[in-house]
Here is the input.
Amino acid sequence: MSTTLRTARRADLPDLNGVIERAVMTWRLPERVKRLSLPLYRYNESDLGHLEVCIAEDEARIAGVAAWEPADPADLPEGSSGLLLHGLYVDPVRKGEGRGTRLLEACLGRARDLGLDGVLVRVQSDAEAFFRARGLERLPVRDATRDYALRYWQRV
Here is the structure.
C-alpha cells in the first residue's frame, strides 16, 4: 500500500482527529486522564491557519498526522532556530509501518527548507523510544518552572 504525504485541509479535520483520538487512547495513562485531555490534542480550523499540518494518507484514508510551528527560541538549544513538532500521531492499526518516520522526516525537511537549525519535540512518555530510535537528542531541563521535562532535539 502506498502512503502519500500532503497538507491537511478543513475537510480532513474529522478523520485526522479520529486518528489522534485512537492514538491517544492507546497511551499508558488512566482512562479518565485520556478522556479529559483528548480535547486538547484535537485540531480545529483555526489550528490549520497557524500550524503546518501534514497527513499521511493511504488510498484516501488518513493514517497519520503531524503538525508543527516555529519554536520559541527560549525552548531551543542556545543560539538555535527551529520548528516545534506540535504533534505526531499514527493510527494504531497502521503503527510500525514507517508513517511516523515519514512524518518526522517531513518536519525535518521543512526546517531544512526554511534554513532553520532543527526540530524540537515535547515528547509524551509513550513515544520517547520512537524519537530516541531516530537519533533525537534529549535536552536537559534548564528551568524546571518553564521547560517541558521530555524535550528532544534533532539538528538538520
Notes: Residues 99-113 form the longest helix (15 residues). The mean pLDDT is 95. Strands lie at 3-7, 52-58, 61-70, 82-90, 118-122, 137-138, 151-155.
